């Protein structure tokens, strides 16, 4: 699959964050970008998973014949299927060679209870609501985003299965990757709080900042009800 030099990688998570961002990224009205959609069913047979595929939705944004940015939305899955599916996606992005790898920008929203520092069991950590983390090789885009977003504390641990899997794979492949981590509040209710909406909008603005895209987040409704997965123990601390 041919993709643009800039790739936004999203996961269809249970709370709907990935899907909301996927729908909210649109061509800037002042640009000449056109969109083209495609979908893929990724086979997992090479991993011994014979009767299951994982869907991948893609929107490419083109300026004439030139691909500028591709936005990917990967179907939600659980380990170990998650690692297999994500590895297949990254293999598609690597394409014909490491020299032509795109830069991946992957946004995540993590509950405050999943952000932990040394000697503390759960936190609101600090007043920063959105962090940035460069992983793998660097590129012009990752360097530019590093100047706009504060890196998390070295003692901060983040518990998120999808993010943990992504970090491990891109480090092995040395793919230029920038992770945007938004902090979600601890309250449990049906409606998204103003603070949480602001986190989503800030992430959207950063995603639109490096392309000719706009973030249309006015109608975003994010279900913050706690899922059954949030009550389970995380499978791995990422760093710290």
Q: Can you tag this structure with a few keywords?
A:
single chain; about 240 residues; alpha/beta; Rossmann fold; seven-stranded mixed β-sheet; globular
Description:
By secondary structure, the chain is of the alpha/beta class. The chain has one domain (6-231): 3-Layer(aba) Sandwich (Rossmann fold), CATH 3.40.50. It has helices spanning 17-24, 81-94, 140-148, 161-173, 194-209; strands at 6-11, 25-27, 34-43, 53-63, 66-74, 103-111, 115-116, 130-135, 157-158, 177-184, 213-215. Strands 3-4-5-1-6-10-8 form a seven-stranded mixed beta sheet. Helix 2 (81-94) packs parallel to helix 4. The longest helix is centred in the C-terminal third of the chain and has 16 residues, at 194-209. It starts with 5 loop residues before the first strand and ends in a 25-residue tail after the last strand. Residues 224-240 have low confidence and may be disordered.
Domains, number: 1
In what order do the strands lie side by side in the largest sheet?
3-4-5-1-6-10-8
The span between the termini is 35 Å
Helix content: 25-40%
Largest sheet: 7 strands, mixed
- CATH topology description: Rossmann fold
Following the backbone from N to C, one meets helices and strands in this order, namely EHEEEEHEEEHEHEHE
Helix/strand class: alpha/beta
How many whole angstroms does the radius of gyration measure?
Answer: 17 Å
What is the number of helices?
Answer: 5
Oligomer: single chain
- What best-fitting shape do the alpha-carbon axes yield? globular
Top-tier CATH class: Alpha Beta
Strand content: 25-35%
- Mean pLDDT equals 84
- Give the total of beta strands: 11
């Amino acid at each position: 699959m041919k993709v643009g030099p800039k790739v936004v990688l999203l996961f269809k998570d249970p709370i709907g964050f990935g899907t909301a961002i996927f729908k909210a990224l649109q061509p800037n009205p002042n640009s000449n970008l056109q969109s083209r959609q495609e979908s893929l069913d990724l086979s997992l047979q090479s991993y011994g998973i014979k009767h299951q595929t994982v869907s991948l939705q893609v929107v490419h944004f083109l300026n004439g014949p030139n691909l500028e940015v591709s936005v990917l939305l990967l179907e939600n899955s659980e380990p170990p299927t998650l690692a297999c599916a994500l590895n297949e996606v990254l293999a598609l992005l690597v394409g014909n060679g490491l020299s032509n790898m795109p830069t991946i920008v992957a946004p995540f929203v993590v509950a405050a209870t999943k952000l932990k520092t040394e000697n503390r069991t759960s936190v609101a950590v600090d007043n920063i609501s959105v962090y940035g983390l460069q992983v793998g090789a660097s590129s012009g885009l990752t360097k530019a985003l590093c100047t706009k977003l504060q890196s998390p504390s070295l003692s901060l641990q983040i518990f998120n299965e999808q993010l943990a899997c992504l970090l491990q794979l891109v480090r092995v492949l040395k793919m230029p990757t920038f992770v945007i981590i938004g902090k979600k509040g601890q309250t449990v209710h049906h409606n998204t709080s103003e603070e949480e909406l602001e986190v989503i909008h800030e992430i959207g603005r950063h995603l639109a900042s490096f392309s000719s895209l706009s973030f249309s987040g006015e109608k975003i409704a994010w279900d913050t009800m706690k899922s059954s997965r949030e009550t389970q123990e995380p499978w791995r601390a990422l760093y710290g």
